[in-house]
Amino acid sequence: MIDLLKAAEFSATGPVKKDLMKTAGSNIVLVCLEAGQVIPPHPEPYAVVFVVLQGEGVITSGITENSVKPQHLVSVKKDENRGIRCNQQMVLLGIREDV
Q: What topology does CATH give the domain 4-97?
């Protein structure tokens, strides 16, 4: 068992990505950002689903900017741009295809 919010780690120097679990078809990570931190939109060769556990911000999916808060889910297709802009300290669960 993993308590996701207790597993969260933050850094003043930038977003923190923490690998939690690998399964046969997916890789599950915790992404933690302080207010004002950004992961610029960029494409990746895998699909991903972000689940917001804490905080508020904007998640880019393709060309769409989604304002998010806890309990929101955003899906991003393979090779589409994805990015995160944090307005209030965020903890996200990222579930991505294993490549």
A: Jelly Rolls (2.60.120)
